[in-house]
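Limitations

Structures in this collection are predictions, not experimental determinations, and the ligand pose is part of the prediction. Treat each record accordingly. The example that follows, with flavin mononucleotide as the small molecule, is included so readers can see exactly what is and is not provided: the inputs are given verbatim, and the output is the predicted complex.
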Amino acid sequence: MKTEFADLKEMHDYAWRLIIRGIVDKKSPARHPTFGTNGLEGMPELRTVVLRYADQKAANLEVHTDVESKKVEELKLNPNVGIHIWFPTNKLQVRIKAISEIKIGSGVIEQWEKVPNGSRVSYGTLPTPGTVIKTPFAYEKPAEFERFCVIKINIEEIDLTHLGTRHTRALYEKKTKWCGSWLAP
Ligand SMILES: Cc1cc2nc3c(=O)[nH]c(=O)nc-3n(C[C@H](O)[C@H](O)[C@H](O)COP(=O)(O)O)c2cc1C
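Predicted complex:
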């Protein structure tokens, strides 16, 4: 656990280590980030997702969803997204701005093959997610590869706030090759 950060690179690497942990550790806060999109009517839309992949060097993340979900409709109109994670034990807030890409079909076979059979039913709900239904269980969950969608999240900015002995905040941007700058917290 870090009590304070005095080095920009160290803080950036530390945050990435915590984020990457979310892929393998179901108890990590990074397992379930909040994913923000721009709603069709211009209002923000936030929801919990499972983090499936994270790569510091490429500065990207991946989450999986149903291609018929509302968020995909939103992303087709506006690919700008946000990711938020709070690591209470490490006292670190991660705020990410990114540009998303929707991937379906032959390009996501590799990811689909790694989805356990029991989880594949998350992709194919009938009627489609968000449809009004008459009773709580008036839906079916067949597993449909055609409905499986990978959202690739290409990061543009990472804003870190650490509530250490003293508070520190730093902004890292792709356009400055992630070298970072300190911000007043
Ligand atoms: C713990 C948890 C994990 C979730 N993981 C995902 C996920 O990985 N992908 C996903 O599309 N929805 C996931 N959901 C459901 C979303 O939060 C959301 O309700 C759903 O995707 C519909 O969102 P939309 O209407 O904005 O598309 C998860 C919900 C919870 C509570």
